[in-house]
Amino acid sequence: MGETERTAPAPGRGWSRLGRPRGGRAAAVLAPVAVMLALGLWGLDRGTVWRDEGATLQVARRSVPEIWHLLGNVDAVHGLYYLLMHPLMALRADETTLRLPSVLAAAATAGLTAAVGVRLARPRVGLWAGLLYAVTPFVSHYAQEGRSYALVAAGAALATWLLLRAVEHPSYGWWAGYGAAVAVTALLHEFAVLLLAAHGVTLLASRVPWRVWRGWGCAAVAACAVLAPLAVVSRGQSEQVSWLRTPGYEQARALLYAFAGPGDAVLAGTLVLTAVALLVPLPRTGPLQLNAVALPLALIPPLLLYVAAQRQPLFLDRYLLFSLMGVPLLAAAGAERLLGLLPWRRVAITAGVVAVAVAFMAQLPAQERERLPASRGDQPALVASAAGKLVRPGDAVLFLPHYERRISLFYPDRFTGLSDLTLRRSAAASGTLFGEEVTAARLRERLSRLAPRRRVWVVWDTSTVGTRWFRAQRAEFAKTQVLDALYREESTVYVHGGAVSLYVRR
């Protein structure tokens, strides 16, 4: 047998010795962590937050009672994340602080991916898997975003690693840790509960003994019980994702490229290595085999969410980031089968690292695009900057549509001293993301009472105002009718995704 062939130890104490982080094992885990940290910190401050990040920024700056009030109305699925971010935003509310937890979480996931590979195969398999995870552009995207998805991926990776330990040592402590990890991960985003289905398939394929099923079942039930209240509340807030559509071929293809690409050459290489891993699996070195862990992790949650979304559209690639670690594990296993034929261990390790470096260079343009200010679509900082240069204290402002008030919530210093013409109750006081607005009749009264020389600024979204969708929004369209009846547009400054217009009395 070749160097990659090893005899599985007998059940019991033999398994406990596998994967201890000493020597090469420690280096195999720490190297992906360092690479992911470097990639995560590269270009972290893009000069603007985007819509979803801005929600984190403005909600996390509220008091805990105000956050709790919001969660009863909207965004309950992100509640734990907002509460975790609250003390950080109290220390320093800027882009770097906002995104740093995601960078650290992505680095932890890269290290845990490597640790799982080390435990299930050997150090170089873990090293390659962790590095492949770190250089994936889809990972970099969410490693540099102030949302919960990178933390969810880290929680899923930790739960997977704890599953391995619990199967090796079926004790109350390990199963309690596993159940806690799954519960917290699912509270960060409830679709992460699909991780339990992947782990269940892993145990089924591995034919584990009854005592393992008993421990896993208790942990799974406990995690689901913790998640149940959030599931009930978030179901009542499903209108938030009403914009999602039933997934089809394009969504499935996009997820495949996100997980294993995005370039065609890298995708082809990943699929070839995965096929090798599945056709010629690595020998089992413990209670679980690598394919039995990695394949369900990469396949089961996306498949279940895709099928469920045919009835209620909820399929989005970022909801499944926690499944991605299964792909580099499979690719690394395939690489082990091919590079393991080389006669010298160090040559094989170096060849694998070089292959990862080549994949990174092939995807460098995609990595660079992730660091551009426009990589997420909208750039509210540009609109806020334009407004800050034009307005002066005592002016009045109107937002079209109402959610454009988010810009003043993201960058409040740009709107200091302005009178918000349509605001009835602030976002924090009303327990909403953008505040409650007055009626069109009340807006007419406020405009009529303004001094003739008082300036009115309209901050508006160029992608929606004037469209069929906007005209169908009665409250929004009514605001424009009232404004046009009393005021006329004098000048407009356009920026990417938005505009600031000056209106004067007719």
TrEMBL record:
Residues 91-229 form the Glycosyltransferase RgtA/B/C/D-like domain. GO terms for molecular function: pentosyltransferase activity. The chain crosses the membrane at residues 26-44, 98-118, 125-143, 149-167, 174-201, 213-233, 254-282, 288-307, 319-335, 347-366. The keyword Cell membrane applies. This is Glycosyltransferase RgtA/B/C/D-like domain-containing protein. Keywords: Cell membrane, Glycosyltransferase, Membrane, Transferase, Transmembrane, Transmembrane helix. The lineage of its organism: Bacteria, Bacillati, Actinomycetota, Actinomycetes, Kitasatosporales. It comes from Streptomyces cinnamoneus. The keyword rRNA-binding does not apply. It is found in: Cell membrane. It is a multi-pass membrane protein.
